[in-house]
Amino acid sequence: MSLASPFLDVSAARDDAYDWALVDVETSGLVARRDRVLSVAVITLGPDGEQTGEFSTLLNPGCDPGPVDVHGLTSERLKGAPTFDQVAGRIGAMLQDRVLVAHNAQFDYDFLAHEFARARMWLPVSQRLCTLALNRQVDPPTDDMKLGTLAAHYGIPQQRAHDALDDTRVLAGVLRASLREAARLDLPLPLVTCPPRAESQFTPSPPKTPCAYRNPGRLAPGGPLRQGMKVAITGDTAHARAELVGRAVAAGLNMMTSVSRHTSVLVTNDTASRSTKARRAVAEGVPVIDEQTFLRLLTDVRPGTAHEVPAARTVPVAAEPEAEQIEPVKPAPTAAPVAPTPEATAVPEPSPPVSVPSPRRPVPVTDTVDKPLSGRRVLVLGGVHADAAAARLRVVELGGSAAINLSASVTDVVLLSGGERDRRIKRITALELPVHDLHWLTSPTTTDRQPSTLRAQEPHVMPRGGVIDLPVPHSGPTPEWYVTAGWAPRPDCEIDVVAFLLDEDEQVGFDEDFIFYGAPENPAGTARLLTGGPAEQTIALNLASLPPSTRKIVVAAAIDGATTFGTVGAVQIGAAPGSSGAPFARATLDAATTERTMLLAEIYRRGPLWRLRAVGQGYDHGLDALARGYGVDVAD
Fold first, then answer.
1. I want to staple 459 with a disulfide (CB 3.0 to 4.6 A). Which of 9, 474, 586, 619 is the partner?
2. How far apart (Å, rounded) are the C-alpha atoms in residues 189 and 181?
3. Cβ distance 358 to 399 under 8 Å?
4. Residue 166 · residue 24 · CB < 8 Å
């Protein structure tokens, strides 16, 4: 059966054509390092969009199949099916020399990588394409980005959701339609390079137990240890380091791998040590004791104050969220004094609360007196960085959303000096989008949007410093929140999105609470880094499973090399419930000129709720200095 369609001609859609391997897996759970693949389907397409192969099978995972109510695969159905290692060769042959395509591709890729590793084989994939990430760029007017929703939008029939083979056939139609839209908008494909992976290289360490007590401060001279004190050890010890750490943790101490201004005491037998921890302890005035003193104090650790567990409170999704407001942006901690540029440290004056619509109420798209751009998405082209940033700020003040790339949701274009030379102008002209000069932002007039470009609910537009409560559902599990950062693609630099899980002292509990490209998942699996393309990365957060000691998550971005955010331009962040959820809130952040790291967003506790703040604060120092400021032990 051919899935090619004359009105979705892939070969005519783009100059760059690929061989594709479309994949869908059904699994026993959501954690690739722990759960197993229950069924897999692969469909291969040529550059012309014609189907060249198809394979699907159930698999015997050798374990409980998990949520049968979701996938319908019982142990009885899977009994007698082949194991993954028995079909790995055939699957590998279909993937070889093709771009792997999946909806939420990192999920399918990670599960396949683990299954191939268990079979002692390499996953033969060098590139992947996520249709979810591709449609985030296209930005069609759908209520969410689920495969079924996109299939309905693009007119692709779906017969059996969560059936691997049917989902893959639907995916083929969605891919063709998405490629057509990307070509119409002249969008680059968000291809992700996939280096070879071995299980030992990407399996997180076992979870560490967070300390249950608040930090009471530093050890007083001659005083006792108290539960919650942050303790670091450096140098050789008479007792095994693991034994010392184990005894201290059992006593309620918070054992750290680095020293910061919040460290209560450093344990060392070498008072002349020049280790990084020892030097930092001297610089910060942290008390220092030897091993024998530490062991003696461990025999009488005084009670501490437990972290407060927020009282449970359900906020209906349909309820009015707390009013959005502007909060001052606090500078990030730094490992050494840093002089940010004036643009980086400028903080908007607090302004009166701005009423925001309820999460389920449609945002009006008709003109209003004070917000004439409400419901509109405006792309600013040209101008020097400061002028473009000022224009985007004006768009937000007028109630609009500032776009960073051309997409199906862009309603207007503002041209600044030099904007007429932007490569997207020809495409904008062909799409017949309204084009305005800078004066239009003084008193804009708009035309009605076509019904085909309208969403049932537009995302909340957040200014820099804006704050909004994240809603929780009436019933059912609390969704993961996905904070996605995107920027205009640039071939001359790499941007890394990172996250820090912080306690009340704004320090990480362990080095593993620093999420970055080298450690994309913390041991508990509550925070993960997901890569959707060269110009998009996401931090996925299971907020309901974070320990009470985690008070804030900081999401930041850093540029590798000499390029600065002034060259990159604006960065867009969006927050959505679930990987395929509709964006709940969106902000466009403009750094200044010389910054190499940028704080994008903070998600922090406010009583039983979590709040999202759009930060947009840049610093000239690199990621290593930012990490040290949050208490991460970074090697010199």
1. 586
2. 11
3. no
4. no
Contact predicate 111/37, CB 8 Å? yes
Domains, in order of start, for the chain:
10-202 (3.30.420.10), 230-298 (3.40.50.10190), 325-362+456-629 (2.60.60.30), 365-439 (3.40.50.10190)
Taking only the tens place, the pLDDT of each residue in 260-308 is: 889 999 999 998 888 888 998 999 999 999 999 999 999 999 999 998 7
Overall residue count recorded for the chain in this entry? 636
Contacting residues for 495 by C-beta, under 8 A, at least 6 apart = 487, 535, 537, 557, 558, 559, 560, 568
* φ and ψ of 11, to 5 deg: -65, -30
CA dihedral 459, 463, 469, 470 (to 10 degrees): 40
Top-confidence range, 86-90, 160-164, 243-247: 86-90
d(CA 536, CA 546): 25
pTM here?
0.80
What is the radius of gyration, based on Cα positions, of the chain?
Answer: 26
Residue in the structure block whose two tokens are 């940028």? 598
Residues 6+ apart with CB under 8 A from 21: 42, 43, 44, 94, 95, 98, 99, 100, 101
Tell which residue, 489, 510, 508, 509, has the closest CA to residue 500. Answer: 508
**Nearest in space to 360 (alpha carbons), one of 581, 104, 610, 151:** 581
Cross-strand bridge partners of residue 240:
none
Burial of 17 per CB tally in 10 Å (0-12, 13-18, 19+): middle
Give the number of other Cβ atoms within 10 Å of residue 127's Cβ.
14
In three-state secondary structure terms, 108 is helix
Cα 485 from Cα 588, distance rounded (Å):
10
CB-hemisphere CA count at 13 Å for 106? 20
Q: How far apart (Å, rounded) are the C-alpha atoms in residues 491 and 564?
A: 14
Q: Average pLDDT, whole number, for the chain? A: 84
**pLDDT at residue 333, rounded to an integer:** 61
**What pLDDT is stored for residue 454 in this prediction?**
63
Cα–Cα distance between 573 and 584 in angstroms, integer?
11
At 347 the pLDDT is 35
